[in-house]
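Model it.
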Amino acid sequence: MRSSRSSASRALGPAVLAALLLIPAVAAPAGAAPGNPGSEDSPSLPGIRATLPEGRPCTAESAKKSARAPWAQSFLGVDRAWELSRGAGVKVAVVSTGADTRRVPALDGRVTGGRDVVAGGTVRDDCVGYGTFLAGLVAGGRQKGLAAAGIAPEAEVVAVRATDKGGLTTPEALAEGIRAATASGARVIHVALAVPSAPRQLREAVAAARKAGALVVAPASAREWESGSGAARAENGPVYPAALPGVLAVSSVGPGGEPAAEDAERGRRTRPGLSAPGVSVTGPGPGGGGQFTGGGDAVAGAFVAGTAALVLSYHPRLSGEQVAHRLEATAYGAVGGAPDPGVGPGVVDPVRALSAVLPEEHGSPPPPSDARHASAARAVPPLDPPTSRDHALAVVGGAVAVTLLVAFLAFVLPRGRRRGWRAGPAGGSAAAAD
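Modeled.
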């Protein structure tokens, strides 16, 4: 018996060691996979700003690229979403600093110039580069050797400029930009700018866009612009157009799904209706094929606008109100618990936004904009993201399965071979026979 146990221990030891080495692979979250470290993208890429510092020239072309898959793409599960929709047939307007429509390969055939409501004419360039960056996040094409791509790569983007050369705007210019976006026929309008007041022109422009059936998306804070040249930072109060009725206000989160610490502490801010990646995000920029990193609520808004394009391509009969409701109802964290004031009801989930079945979309009107949050919990109960408890259970289950397999290999197979695979004697005599 001692000899049998000794030989079994020798057989069991290496197998158990191999099993233990396999356990981390079972427990590792998706964000820790190679090429998707779950942290910020390449820190060597230059940053893109929403405004140019006073007296500075236009943003220069980036000479750097990163072959790593951007964390935001993995976080949002865009590869799985693309199995259902890539945004074909949907037009998205980005109201920002314009777009470099001629020199950026990622935008080729995907982004066209709309009106320049400040300088006049048609948008062909982008001195700041911020609008180019956002347009690429919405619908940029994947370039050779790079993993980065827009969330809705088959959507069409119309770039509308509503700023001066340095990236600053006014409520009146913003209103004209929204009207130009509505006139372009865009189903989704990403107003990637924020102002501290909403005069009649701005309110009417937003109302007209909604009446035309467009979903209006806007950043929930003004922090990108309050630090601009000569701007006095306001410590409280709402931001527009995010605070206007029917506008989907978006805030930014980092790789951990939490807002940046400073986001909730400074500047004007409107309570967000949704959140999306907006910290250390990789995207294209002006001048050529180089890449930049950028962040902020307008960056998060680009991901929400792109997701809306995916949804409208897959569910073309939905209204703007219904799309907003679908995005909020299927977001992570939309069911149960008190929402984080910095995140809103949840973080956008493209896969569930496309695939969820919402009973209220069949035979009943969409909920009013001020009732979306209340109805989100009833719409669809999404699963929470994997927690550490889930990972622990996975580890235990995997370890038990491997141990049982090892026991089978260490004890049953050797005995079967010795007996020539004949049935053993009845009762306890089997042990004696060994």
